[in-house]
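Worked example (supplementary).
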Amino acid sequence: MSIQTVVSPQDTNPNVRFLEEVSLHTAGVSRLEMCIQCGTCGGSCPSAADMDHTPRMLFAMVRAGMRTEALSSNTPWICVSCYHCVVRCPQEVHIADVMYTLKSMAIKNKLYKDATAPDFSQTFVEMVENYGRSYEFGLATRHYLKHFPLRLPNMAPMGLGMLTKKRMDLRPKKIKGIDQLQAILERAKEVEAVS
Amino acid sequence: MNEYLFYPGCSMESNAIAYSESLKAISKPLELVLKEIDDWNCCGATEYVGISLTPAYALITRNLALASRQAKDSHTVVAPCSACYLNLAKADYYMRESPRLNQNVNTALAAGGLSYRPGSLEIRHLLDVIINDIGLAEIKKHVVRPLSGLRVAPYLGCMVPRPDYDQRWSDAEHPTELDRLLKALGAEVIDYPLKTHCCGGHMTQISPSTAFELIRRLISSADQYHADLMVTLCPMCQMNLDAYQNETNKHFGTHYHMPILFFTQLIGLAFGLDASELGIGRELVSARAALSKIGVEPPPEEPKPPRRRKEKTTGLPMPQMPAEEEVV
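After joint prediction of all chains, the assembly is encoded as:
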């Protein structure tokens, strides 16, 4: 859209095109270039207090080509996907989806500062790729042992409660078409790699 | 008779089994026929989209492809879980909006002999079909035990009313659907200001203090309104508010006791169904005291396992000075 007119095609600095890159890897149309820096997003955010940058600030950084700073911000990882900012944004920027894009780019470039959230996502996805279903017990034990061993004593009564109330399976469930699913995901990864 | 394709989602078979049981129990009187999508897979929650775009959407869309193959009389997919509902709706919407995403996802699906044409299915949340297709008038006909005197906080969480791609809800921040349903059941419904605020989602696993603060806000607000219990329509919300309530209390030094039930459980109670049939008693924060207000006796609590070790009244043995009378 308007980006081509702003950025000269001769400019070889890849960071100049960071905004385009983020938009390209976002589902649907990101509308990120429409941001007017009003701050409605940060003001609506329930977890902004724990963020390195408010969403508004982060988007300004993306547009300014501050690739490393933007991708190492904890902001996308603290976003709780509540979509409050999304429905309030006067420019209808797809904020939550842009946060997902920034997470995936941070993982790809290994730029995240704290591995807790990326590890959690990756362990979750690994279970889904293996079984076709989420596997809470496996996920929770692996994640807690690695990242929150000190929380385990506090968590034990809860885990026991979930087990005795039959709300947690000890063994994973596998779908019948796991081979089909894995073939789909394999192809999807190939498509993603070239796009 | 109302017939739909049904995408249960992983939680319905594990942490939200009470949701599943109560839904099954009320389906009969409501003549709600839910045809489960054969061999459905996980929707990826909010995790896969944060790792890789095309695989995440391919994972979601495999379910839609299977559903459209199975679709005969109904082309509506119903999901009871907020995250599943949003993921399915989102994939359908963005594939309509972006030809590139549509092409990429279908290229991936082809590797499994599947395809999906966006827009060919309608994706709706369970509460939506119960309120808008079955209707409150029909629901009222089945109420034999009105929930009179029970003060409830209607809690929808984020992902059902927002972002609402297909304008199915009355408002993105203060929708009234759940309030109206609970009023039809005879409950005293508080005007809960945080009804669509966040429960913390996966933050309990990533940044516990962030999550505990969000949980505290929700529970303390419901408590200030003297709610007997909170009613939810999402497995994740129920799990966070119920299973992490104890840890949240410890974190802040508070003593909240706020039972969290699914709306399907309250429908069942108002229909006069048995508490055990509705999965009541599976909540970690007991709803026993709250439900006694409407004369419901939940199944007895299972006895606690005996403690293995006796707690010592003293600490470790320490060298001590002998008492004076022992000194000769």
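Two points are worth noting when inspecting this output. Confidence is low (pLDDT under 50) at residues 1-5 of chain A. Chain A touches chain B through 70 residues (CB under 8 Å).
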